[in-house]
Automatic annotation (TrEMBL):
InterPro entries: Acyl_Trfase/lysoPLipase (IPR016035), LysoPLipase_cat_dom (IPR002642). This is Lysophospholipase. Belongs to the lysophospholipase family. It is an enzyme of class 3 (hydrolase). The chain crosses the membrane at residues 641-663. Its EC number is 3.1.1.5. PROSITE patterns: PLA2C (PS51210). Residues 1-24 form the signal peptide. It catalyses: a 1-acyl-sn-glycero-3-phosphocholine + H2O = sn-glycerol 3-phosphocholine + a fatty acid + H(+). Keywords: Glycoprotein, Hydrolase, Lipid degradation, Lipid metabolism, Membrane, Signal, Transmembrane, Transmembrane helix.
Length: 703
């Protein structure tokens, strides 16, 4: 380890001291898994295997879905639809049989966490405005909620805080939620300076957590740092008052497998959660997007594994981190517990370091100018000096599937899995997890906040990737996709990437049994206002005002639908959303719903046009320019004012310099003719106290 200058060396020494103190004194080491745990007594109970034809859900997942649909969802449908007369149906005639619905929230950093939050708020019965608009209620009738990358930050935050409303989660409440900390930069929260003392405290605590894991013999990487940073900003135990202290574990010790202990999970209040993550073949060193046949994994409260035909295996999540061969540990006490830290799950699903971490020089390539790259370089090099690992640019998971399906599974002979961001294969919305045949979904809501084009809007790439992956890799294990535009260019030209769209509306006899997809892409405000939601993936902080504007825009878009050739909201959109959600359970389709489908359904034989969405603005406008951005905006706004200001400064400086010269010459002249008078009785010498020289300065008189 070399240090280019004395400042770097000093910072290393300071951070090492902080790290040593933190390890000895603070609860952050609860991030460390427990090793040498007794394994289950039942042989082969850690890993279950199956085929595409013998798929079966984990019994705990099956029980959860059955209980939620029986005790929660049936009442939620009644709350949302009422007697269903508004959409042309009779609720009682449904006979308690409802479509099974899933929601998939895509990811790419803070942007998609906030976009997903806004959309879920717009679908939440607890939000009065959404409920009155008719959209609020869909969240309550959903059986599943999947997420990846930045979407997993939203999901993990919701789950680990026991399913609060979005307003409470993002902005906090007076009881026990302090708010998201997205105004504090994810990497350099105190200031862009690497030498900032508060940044050093933050990094020291994070490094202590990761080192405690490494000290127990488990591999670490940049993903561990990343996950711990995420936990400070999205999990509980962190407030603005203790952010830079070590009073709590800041999310350390919160396990994904212990989610089932939360009250709202035990009450079946929340949809069943799934986090998706991609992988690359161990040892391949891939630094670009991975191929479509790379194994995609999922993490639920009960299991970790893949439904891909090449693997088709699941591990009990509570024993993740255990090295297994053919499903068996090396000995009865070789199991690991506590590896499934919530922060590490969220970090794994958003581990994009294969694309930005240079293995050669150990530096990061963030496209930012606010200290993030320097900060990540610094803390990463500290990690290397304490806990080096052979693979640093992926999430390292001990392989529990070694020996499984050696003919098809890419990592059957590997000791370690190298997991990556859930969008590394371009499927940025984890739709595949909801199309697993055993789950039997009828409707899937796709919340797409991807930044696919030059202005950071989605263009259908994620759906196209899912379509291609299911056709070429997953046809035996997953439901087929409904018809969608064939290219990204067609998504754009038809305008379906800029408004809500229903895919798969019209099933006909003999067609594959695909679900309806309700597509909710991030799009410019329907009313023509300047957009604030199309931000860069690597924007790692948002001011409070920025977040409020962002979520407000996306929320109102969720409630608005669209009116063809207008910049107004659709007053019938809430009913149309209800029509799409209930459609697979009713026949024939009502006249009201038929009208809705004529407007919102994608029909490959009758294509719509982007021209039906007039006066949209596509160029991002910062709703809260601050710091240097404000200065830059001011400078660009009035260059003549700037010139005058500079001239005034120069004149002022010249005047001050001239006065100093005049005063010094006059002082020198007077001193030649002065004498010190004796202090008279009425003098007040303390008025002439010179605090610098600590002497009394006697009055000088001119003779």
């Amino acid at each position: 380890m070399t240090y280019p200058n004395m400042l770097q060396l000093a910072l290393h020494i300071i951070l090492s001291c902080i790290l040593s103190f933190t390890v000895a004194q603070n609860p952050v080491d609860t991030y460390a898994p427990t090793v040498n745990v007794n394994c289950p007594d039942t042989p082969n109970s850690l890993v279950r295997t199956f085929t595409s034809q013998t798929q079966v859900l984990n019994t705990s997942e099956t029980d959860y879905i059955a209980s939620r649909e029986s005790y929660i969802i049936s009442n939620a449908w009644s709350n949302w639809l009422g007697n269903a007369s508004d959409i042309g149906y009779d609720f009682e005639s449904l006979g308690g049989k409802f479509p099974r619905i899933g929601i998939a929230v895509g990811g790419e950093g803070y942007r998609t966490a906030q976009y997903g939050a806004a959309v879920l708020s717009g679908l939440d019965w607890r939000n009065t405005t959404a409920r009155e608009a008719g959209t609020g209620g869909l969240l309550q009738v959903a059986s599943y909620l999947s997420a990846s990358s930045g979407g997993s930050w939203l999901l993990g935050s919701l789950l680990m805080n026991d399913w609060p409303s979005i307003n409470e989660l993002v902005y906090g409440n007076a009881e026990n939620l302090s708010s998201w900390m997205v105004d504090l930069d994810l990497i350099v929260p105190s200031s862009p300076s690497v030498s900032d003392g508060s940044n050093q405290e933050y990094w020291g605590s994070i490094l202590a957590s990761v080192e405690s894991k490494a000290n127990n013999g488990l591999p670490t990487s940049a993903t561990d740092l990343w996950g711990r940073m995420i936990s400070y900003h999205f999990l509980n135990e962190t407030t603005r008052g203790n952010f830079y202290t070590n009073q709590t574990g800041h999310g350390a010790g919160q396990l994904w497998s212990q989610m089932s202990l939360l009250p709202n999970f035990q009450n079946y209040t929340m949809p069943f959660p799934i986090v998706a993550t991609d992988s690359r073949k161990a040892g391949s060193g891939i630094t670009t997007n991975v191929p479509l046949n790379s194994t995609v994994y999922e993490i639920t409260p009960f299991e970790f594994g893949s439904w891909d035909p090449s693997l088709s295996a699941m591990l009990q999540l509570e024993f993740a981190g255990t090295y297994l061969t053919n499903g068996l540990p090396a000995n009865p006490s070789a199991c690991v517990a506590g590896f499934d830290q919530a922060s590490f799950v969220m970090g794994t699903s958003s581990s994009f370091f294969n694309a930005v971490l240079n293995d050669t020089d150990g530096n990061f390539g963030f496209d930012t100018s606010d200290g993030d790259e320097q900060g990540m370089n610094f803390i990463f090099n500290q990690l290397l000096s304490h806990t080096p690992s052979s693979v640093m640019n992926a999430a390292n998971w001990p392989n529990p599937f070694k020996g499984v399906n050696p003919g098809t599974f890419q990592d059957s002979s590997a000791d370690q899995l190298e997991l990556l961001d859930g969008g590394s294969n371009y499927e940025k919305v984890p739709l595949s997890s909801l199309l697993v045949k055993a789950r039997g979904l009828d409707v899937v809501v796709v919340v797409d906040g991807s930044a696919d084009d030059q202005n950071y809007w989605p263009n259908g790439t994620s759906l196209l990737t899912t379509f291609e992956r299911i056709s070429s890799v997953l046809s035996s294990s997953h439901q087929p996709m409904p018809p969608i535009p064939g290219t990204a260019a067609q998504f754009v030209s038809t305008g379906v990437n800029m408004r809500p769209t229903f895919f798969g509306c019209n099933l006909t006899q003999g067609q594959p049994d695909y679900p309806i997809i309700i597509y909710l892409p991030n799009a410019p405000p329907f009313d023509g206002h300047a957009p604030a939601t199309n931000t860069d993936d690597t924007q790692f902080s948002y001011t409070s005002k920025f977040t409020a504007v962002f979520i407000n825009q996306a929320f109102w878009n969720t409630l608005a639908g669209f009116e063809p050739k207008a910049t107004s909201s659709d007053p019938n959109w809430g009913r149309c959303l209800q029509c799409a959600a209930i459609d697979r359970a009713v026949t024939p389709r009502s006249d009201i719903c038929s009208q809705c489908f004529a407007q919102y359904c994608y029909d490959p034989n009758n294509l719509t046009s982007l021209s039906e969405l007039p006066d949209r603005q596509f160029i991002f406008v910062n709703p809260d320019p601050s710091g240097l951005q404000k200065v830059k905006q001011w400078l660009e706004g009035d260059k003549s004012l700037l010139a005058g200001f500079i001239v005034a400064i120069i004149v002022g400086i010249a005047g001050i310099v001239g006065f100093i010269f005049w005063w010094r010459r006059r002082r020198a002249r007077l001193s030649r003719y002065s004498r010190v008078d004796e202090l008279r009785e009425d003098d007040e010498p303390w008025k002439y106290y010179d605090g610098n020289s600590l002497e009394l300065t006697r009055r000088m008189s001119i003779t």
